[in-house]
Every structure is written in C-alpha cells, then in structure tokens.
Specification:
The chain is of the alpha/beta class. The protein is built from 13 helices and 10 strands. It folds into 2 domains: about 220 residues, Rossmann fold, CATH 3.40.50.1100; about 100 residues, 3-Layer(aba) Sandwich (Rossmann fold), CATH 3.40.50. β7, α8 and β8 form a beta-alpha-beta unit.
C-alpha cells in the first residue's frame, strides 16, 4: 500500500480560529443610523456605521473573513508572514488580526501614501513596503510573500469568496435584522461602493438567496474601472488611473467584483463625492470619509427618485469609515483646490435635495 500523509498538529490553527472568534464575540454589531431627512418625507435613509469597528472601517469585516479563509485553507499557519497590497483601511485591519495571532504583516503600498495612513498601519504592528508605481503593488506583494515563505492575502481576488454570503452574521444579514422593526423593513435599494467587490457580491447574493425584492446599486468614483467593466461586460476592463476616493475606486475591475448581482451602477464625480462628504458630516455632526460621500450621492439620487414617483420605502447605504483620516485631503480646502475640484455645483445639488427632495445632479 502506498500513501502520502501530510497531516500535522492543528493546535495553532485551532487556537488562531478561537482567537478570531473570541475577538468577534467581544465586539458588538455596528449601528444602523437614521439619516436626518425631513420627517414628512415617506422615504427613510439608513447608514450602516462601519466606522465603529475596532480598526475604524468596513474593512475590519473583510480582514476577519480573509484571515479565517486563509487559515482554514492551510495557507496561513504559525510563523507565516502575511503580505497584502494595500495602502488603506484593509492594511490597517489586516495588521490588527496579524498582531492578534502573533504574525508578521507587511503592507505593500505606493511611496506616495500619506504619513497618516502609514502611521495607522504601523500602530497595529504592521510594516510598510513601498513601490514607486501603484500597479507594481500586486507583483511586489507576490514576490515578498514568495521570498519570505509567507502568504499574499490578495484581498482583490479573495474578498467575494471569503465571506459566507448566505448569512453567518455577514453585513447583509445584519442590515436586514436591524431593519426588522422599521416602517419599511425591506429596503427598496442598498447602495455600496465597489472597492474589492466583496461587499457588493455578499449583499447582492444575499438579496437573491433570501428572495428579497431589494435592488443593489453600486456607486463608482471618477477614474474607477468598475462602471466601464459593468457597461461593456469586460471583466478585464482597466482605466489605469488612480482614484481620489480611497477604498472604492480602482484602476482595474477586480476579480472579486460580480457585476451580475448588481442592478444599477452610478458614476459619481469626485467633486460630488467630496461635497457629499462635507454635507453629510455637517448633517450628522461628525466627519465621515470620502467613500461615504460617494455612497450618499447615489443614495440621495435614489431617494429623490422614490419621492418623485410618489412612493414610500427605505434606502440603506454604508458609513465606511470616519473622516479624521482625511483631514488633510477631503476636508482641506487647499488640497481640494490643488486637485482643481469645484464643489460649488454639487453643493447646490445637495442643498436643493435637502430642502425639496428634488434631484438636479
């Protein structure tokens, strides 16, 4: 008889899963906030506030899922160096989980990454490795992982498959549970950005699995590739251009983006995203990030559509992260001017919407 046995003690794996589950057990669910629309409007708007995760963003959910996926696939084990191509919130969250498990973490990012983002990653115990050109991040992350005998987490490939879209406390299940006692518990629309594509894939699949009539809208910022890929059906569509709206705009259609579960895509100019970010920060009494502004521009548009049609209902979108990370960009007039962005027109659209419910954008 011939056989090959590669079994090994699973003590570290068992403990790693326990640590991640224990961390989740200690964490409360994120709030579902009512956005302050006029009380006499028959449409309600809700924000799923992902900024309250311990690492401050929606990416905390993704990082947890990616680590569990990699551990249970046997890719990450004791002593594995974890490498990711990210200069933003995903790297912050993955650094947190690597530290929890006693693993080294390296974030591969452009040399132009802001000192504030670098500091957040390093505060979680991560190390930053820089490349001159953003497209080089992926190949360099693969090289570093191979060189160290580590694992390239590759959020853009694995995001849509790492999360159990049927439930198990994913973000979609949480939204519908939190809406259960509201006037309109089944939303007309859920609005998200694309980013890795994982969140839109999870929500779109869950809607179909639960047979809800809810539709999914994905908002896409200027220079991002997802709208072009959706329009043409080209999964390899690229713009090759960076996005000013961190966390959701991508220069290529990422492998985790599943356009077939998306009902509508909306292109949002960067000036509109930033104007909506500031508008919402004033309305909520706290700063929100730029991707939240992109989400809200699309959500306001859909609320106005429902009002114009004389319909009632609810719309849900995400508050992805807080605005303090962007004090030197989206909330800095000098930075906005340096980008040659004019917020006057979008700000007028938002003021008109808030006053009348009409959308002129």
């Amino acid at each position: 008889m011939k056989y090959l046995d590669r079994s090994a003690p699973r003590d570290w794996v068992d403990n790693a899963v326990r640590l991640i589950d224990a961390d989740a057990q200690r964490s409360a669910d994120t709030h579902l906030l009512r956005y302050p629309l006029p009380a006499d409007w028959p449409v309600q708007l809700y924000l799923k506030d992902e900024s309250t995760h311990i690492t401050g963003s929606l990416k905390h959910r993704l990082a947890r899922s990616l680590f569990l996926y990699a551990i249970c696939n046997g890719w990450v084990t004791e002593g594995t160096t974890v490498v990711e191509a990210s200069s933003g919130s995903t790297a912050v969250s993955e650094a947190y989980f690597a530290k929890l498990l006693g693993l080294d973490f390296v974030a591969v990012m452009p040399a132009s990454t802001s000192p504030q983002k670098i500091a957040l990653i390093e505060a979680q115990g991560g190390r930053c490795h820089f490349v001159e050109r953003p497209p080089e991040m992926y190949s360099e992350a693969k090289r570093l992982a191979a060189e160290s005998g580590g694992h390239f987490m590759d959020q853009f490939t694995h995001a849509e498959r790492a999360t159990d879209w049927r439930g198990n406390n994913n973000i979609a299940e949480s939204i519908f549970q939190q809406l259960a006692l509201e006037q309109h518990p089944i939303p007309e629309w859920i609005v998200v950005g694309a980013g890795t594509g994982g969140t839109s894939a999870t929500i779109g699949r869950y809607i179909r699995y639960r047979r809800h009539p809810t539709r999914l809208a994905v908002v896409d910022p200027e220079n991002s590739a997802f709208y072009g890929g959706y329009e043409t059906g080209d999964a390899g569509y690229e713009t090759g251009m960076p996005s000013r709206i961190e966390g959701i705009g991508r220069p290529r259609v990422e492998p985790s983006f599943i356009g077939q579960v998306v009902d509508r895509m909306i292109v949002v100019p960067d000036a509109a995203s930033i104007a909506a970010t500031r508008h919402a920060s004033t309305a909520l009494g706290r700063r929100v990030g730029g991707s939240t502004g992109t989400n809200l521009w699309g959500a306001f548009h859909l609320v106005a559509e429902l009002l114009a049609a004389g319909r009632s209902g609810s719309v849900v979108t995400l508050l992805c992260d807080g605005g303090d990370r962007y004090a030197g960009t989206y909330f800095d007039d000098a930075w906005v001017e340096s980008q040659r962005l004019d917020l006057t027109g979008p700000s007028a659209v938002l003021a008109e919407f808030a006053a009348t419910g009409r959308w002129t954008g």
